[in-house]
Design brief:
The chain contains nine helices and 28 strands. By secondary structure, the chain is mainly beta. Among the domains are: 112 residues, membrane protein fhac (Ubiquitin-like (UB roll)), CATH 3.10.20; 76 residues, membrane protein fhac (Ubiquitin-like (UB roll), Roll), CATH 3.10.20.310; 73 residues, membrane protein fhac (Ubiquitin-like (UB roll)), CATH 3.10.20.310; 161 residues, Porin (Beta Barrel), CATH 2.40.160. The strands form five sheets. It has a 17-stranded antiparallel beta sheet that branches. A hairpin with a 3-residue loop joins strand 5 and strand 6. It is globular.
């Protein structure tokens, strides 16, 4: 006997219900040990089979995990997460139940989830009602998440509601009301109606300030993106609040809008602030590497303090004093190889725009044990302009003067004489960047691009001891990309990987080639942030070698190339596994650049995500041979990722 399509469908539906009932009875009968299950480990998580397959593994949605502890409260949350997941794919009547079975042999539990999806609903049409003051053309972009004919998704509805509200809030309508109405049609179709009550258009009649004790009113007023007489705009208010926090003057900023009692179209904007203390002091302890003075690391102690609000104008001044200490194991003695003092003054507004000007002056004492002593004087002035979407532009002028104090032979095993002999260096620099990363400390998507250019003038002695003047142009550019992806490896649920890549190149151009470049302005590579596997700055031209012909002191060069690729795999909690391939080199002259000389290293490491940023330990090993490298591997420790 032939069956009609309807009869077949009823038979399948009946069979599916019977299977669900049997599955439910089974897990209920086996789940009598529920009270004993709490706190025990989960041996296995089992989901009833459903015909729908989404983009995410069900085991990735829930918080309960295999080999984790069974927690009834967590399972209750898991049911809600699974329910919302299926609802977002159009299964509005989905039902999720759970049960647990105790395995007395292993003393572990099995967690069962019974899922009945029910019918699937699709979006039929979307209509807007009550629109009068705002053009429909302006509102349509808010409806982009809603795809006609796609499975009904309530999250997309809420996203469109928020987008519509933002359009109204930024168009002078802070009291708009939006409600949705669903109309079910033909059993599986849903039409959505947005009922909009626009209410009055509001203008800012006045702005009032309170909470200031030291900060003058104009410091707040100039940071505002809105002024009296303007139409209400929430985006402008949010940006104004960000501007005020960015000054560093305030601990708390709150905006409130009070409507006029006699006129609903007028309102008073009230700004309340809590100021930070104007004076501040602190200290910092760290380890630095400075191969110009000796080989190895030194301990630095920085004492710092300043005033962030001079005369209530938002101007700031700060002082940093940094002595360093070096322990000589051969002499069993502690030395003070160098001391630095830096004074920084910040003018927050230049040319009546939000462009900070930073004036810096510093003095450094270098007192090597076995060589001549010298002082370095530095001064600089920089302008920093930040634009929307992570774009920043900097321009500045700097000068560096070196004064040799103790006459005599410079010990070339301790100091590079080129750094001392270049007794005057002046530079005009420009820097541009675009940062599209959502998280700069632990980037998982987006990109970062920068370009810098500086014109320099140096005066001093060259390697032959002759007086020399040099003019040169330094160009540097880098591009970094962070690509998230979720592969399924060896049958395990999808992993949250991040694939990070970087390209960086630099060149120093001279109108008269082959002149010497000040040591500080040269390119260096090798180490925790460039090519891992090489020790710090030990890749490229050398200034001196040891008795075995291994590089002892890097000389730097005029050309740089770096290419890095790193795969970041979250293991558990705050631990991330890194595996990487680094490559690059430095060449003494531009004419020496040879792609065949690019060195390649590989390795792995662990990064620990902390509130201060990732703390990582990497092991790098040389893939291409390098007879000048002191070792064929290196272990690196650092704060933040390599790039």
């Amino acid at each position: 006997m032939k069956q009609t399509t309807k009869e077949i469908g009823l038979h399948i539906l009946k069979t599916g219900r019977q299977a669900s009932i049997i599955f439910l009875i089974l897990i209920l009968l086996l789940g009598t040990d529920l009270l004993w299950a709490a706190g025990r480990k989960i041996e296995k998580i089992i989901f009833s089979k459903v015909r729908f397959e989404g983009e995410t593994e069900l085991s990735q949605i829930i918080n309960s995990k295999k080999n984790g502890l069974y927690e009834p409260r967590l399972v209750k949350l898991d049911r809600l997460l699974l329910t919302n997941y299926f609802k977002n794919y159009g299964f509005l009547n989905v039902q999720v139940r759970d049960s647990v079975v105790l395995n007395r042999r292993t003393n572990k539990v099995r967690l069962y989830f019974l899922i009945r999806t029910g019918p699937r609903f699709y979006l039929n049409k979307v209509l807007l009602k009550g629109v009068h003051d705002i053009p429909l053309k302006k509102l349509k972009p808010a409806l982009k998440p809603l795809k006609i004919g796609a499975p009904f998704n309530e999250d997309a509805i809420n996203t469109s509601i928020h987008a519509l509200e933002n359009i109204y809030y930024n168009s002078g309508k802070p009291y708009v009301q939006i409600r949705t109405q669903y109309l079910f049609e033909q059993d599986s179709l849903i039409s959505v109606y947005f009922n909009i009550h626009e209410n009055a258009t509001v203008y800012i009649k006045d702005i009032q300030y309170s909470g200031m004790q030291l900060v003058q009113k104009f410091c707040i007023r100039r940071e505002l993106e809105i002024k009296p007489g303007d139409i209400y705009n929430r985006q402008a208010l949010n940006k104004s609040q960000q501007n005020l926090y960015a000054t560093g003057l305030f601990r708390y900023v709150r905006f409130t809008l009070e409507p006029e009692t006699q006129d609903s179209t007028q309102a008073v904007l009230k700004i309340f602030v809590q100021e930070k203390k104007a004076h501040w002091v602190g200290f910092r302890l760290g380890i630095a590497h400075d191969q110009d003075i000796y080989y190895g690391n030194k301990l630095e102690l920085t004492l710092q303090g300043g005033h962030r609000n001079l005369f209530g104008t938002g101007r700031s001044i700060s002082l940093f004093i940094t002595p360093s200490f070096y322990y000589n194991f051969e002499k069993n003695k502690i030395y003070n190889p160098d001391n630095q003092a830096t004074l920084i003054y910040v003018e927050p507004w230049i040319f009546a725009t939000r462009t900070p000007g930073v004036f810096k002056i510093s003095f450094s004492q270098y007192r090597p044990v076995y060589s001549a002593h010298f002082d370095i004087y530095r001064t600089s002035f920089d302008l920093d302009k930040r634009y929307e979407k992570g774009t920043e532009l900097k321009a500045g002028f700097s000068a560096r003067l070196v004064k040799l104090l103790k006459e005599g032979t410079i010990d070339t095993t301790q100091i590079n004489p080129l750094d001392v002999n270049k007794n005057a260096v002046y530079a005009l620099s420009f820097f541009w960047k675009r940062d599209k990363r959502k998280n700069i400390f632990n980037p998982q998507d987006g990109s970062y691009t920068d370009v810098s250019m500086s014109f320099s003038y140096s005066r001093g002695k060259n390697e032959a001891g002759n007086f020399e003047i040099n003019r040169y142009l330094t160009l540097i550019s880098s591009w970094q990309r962070y690509q998230p992806f979720r592969p399924k490896v060896l049958g395990f649920p999808r992993w949250h990987f991040t694939f990070a890549t970087r390209l960086k190149a630099g060149a120093i151009l001279e109108p008269v080639p082959n002149k010497s470049i000040p040591f500080d302005d040269r390119f260096f590579a090798g180490g925790a942030t460039t090519v891992r596997g090489y020790h710090e700055q030990m890749l490229g031209p050398a200034f001196s070698y040891d008795a075995n012909g291994k590089i002892k002191q890097a000389a730097g060069g005029k050309a740089l190339f770096l290419a890095n690729a790193e795969l970041r795999i979250p293991l558990f909690w705050f631990v991330v596994l890194e595996t990487f391939i680094d490559s690059g080199n430095v060449w003494a002259e531009l004419r020496d650049v040879n792609p065949l000389q690019i060195k390649v290293t590989g390795g792995f490491g662990l990064a620990f995500i902390t509130p201060l940023g990732p703390i990582r330990i990497d092991y790098g090993h040389l893939i291409t041979k390098d007879k000048y490298a002191p070792t064929n591997y290196a272990i690196h420790a650092g704060l933040y990722f390599a790039f």
